[in-house]
Amino acid sequence: MHELNRPRSRLLTLPAIVIVAVITQAPILVTIGLSLVQWIVVRPDLGVTFVGLNNYFDILITRDFYSVVLNTALITLASLAACTVLGILFGLMLNQDFRGVSIVRTLVISPFFVMDAVAGIIWRTMMLNSSFGFNESFASLLGIKPVDFFGVYSLLTIIILIVWQWTPFFVLIMLAGFRSISVEIADSARVDGAGWWRELLSIRLPIIMNHIEVAILLGMIFVLKVFGLIYVTTRGGPGYSSANLPFYVFRLAFLGWNVGHAAALAVVTVGITLVAIFFLFRWFRRRFAEASS
Amino acid sequence: MISRARRGRRMLRIAAAWCVAVIWAFPLLYMLLTSFKAEADAVPPTLWLAHPTLQNYGVVLQQQILRYLEDSGIISLATVAICIFVGVPTSYVIVFGRLKRADNLFFWFLSTTLLPPVAMIIPVFLLFRVLGLLDTLGGMILIFSGVNIPIVIWMIRAFLLDVPREILESADLDGASRLRSFFSTIVPLCRQGIVSIGLLVFIFVWNEFFFSINLTYVNAAPVPVYMASFMTQEGLFWAKLSAISTLVILPPSILGWFAQRSLVKGLTAGSVKG
Questions:
Q1: What SS3 class is residue B272?
Q2: Hey, what CATH topology would domain B63-268 get?
Q3: Which of B20, B172, B227 sits opposite A93 (nearest CB)?
Q4: For chain B, what percent of residues have pLDDT higher than 70?
């Protein structure tokens, strides 16, 4: 058995532990501390005072908080559902052999590697702009008014952009799943006379269920953090109608300079994220443990 | 008869695949097209390239973008170097070391990737202000290393688990020291994985928005920050906007094309079979 049993090898893990702990863990503890003080940077006359849980109460009594939580839930659920369905469909589509399939795959996957800032810019200007973009061209072609993507439908716009960017990620994982299905299994299903839909629902999808679950879990982790797309397109507006939790924290911290409120909201965000991930994570851990044993 | 019907269906499926791909990539393809248009032809949108020109690229390359590209390049490359240098040995020890709590250590790293960056931004901002790290390359490299080291540890693990134990054991019998066997056996065997994960970290850092916009202003601002301000100031010059957007998404797109397989392997290995 090849094993590193010298205590010296343990030292190799130290730099990583120190850097990660200092950069990512310590700040979270400080955030918890800051959530208990009143500190408005633009009002130095008020000073920094301990206010206990008041910041949490201040946040929890605003309507904005609940609409932002609802937005976050809607964004997450809607985009994950759409990404999963499209990911499976596109995965099936790319799991065929034909000339040019690698070009098709590259085209489908390309949005994933585009930075949020640019993705937001393209959609905001050339695609969805209601006076000049394709939005307007289509509307005048159909003789209707252009859709107000950055007003009434701002939340939908954010979801569309996330789906556009993250479906490729789902496709990559689903594709890996479909590739892992052996030819014999697919053939035996065909011999049994199973139709395409039956074969998909009762044989192929159950086999790639692991892949689907992993894609959803990772997708959720990323979608809960979405920030750049919102910043560049709707700025969370109008009002807070398309803001998610990270964007709301940003608004409180860097536009309102209310450190206490922002920190309290950040802590609540972590709480919600952890609760959302908790049940999935238990499953996650079990899988890892199984596979590595 | 049957074969003809089957071939017809196959052609249909292939045509559908092409359609979906072109629609999905349409915003990018259209951006590419617009980048070769004269500014006067860019609005309203047409699929016709009346007067193809490279002028937009010439114009945008003369603006400050070069400085931002340089900042992004330095930050990304330095972060990749640190993450690989620190992350790969750590993962090696977690997989092969006889640590008592190797699994716990691994899941601790894993769990840090779950936390939303907003939970750290305020203290990091305050700390950086005190230490004079706001708007510096060093500060950005530091924060991105902290965020990406766990990802390297997580993803390289999949490749380490693939290393046949017999090879390592025979290296042991040869009396190679552990450190030597790391460089003589592990690194060459996982070369592909290490390179692709390096590429992915490069892409993540190059594209990162949240920390960039909150921790930099002018001196160390990477490309995404520039794009956001360009959008605000010159958002109506679509041809220029397209040229500049095309330039900045080119590096991650090319690198991403090479790294896509390893992305899937690194993220899913251990949690899926096969």
A1: strand
A2: MetI-like fold (1.10.3720)
A3: B20
A4: 94
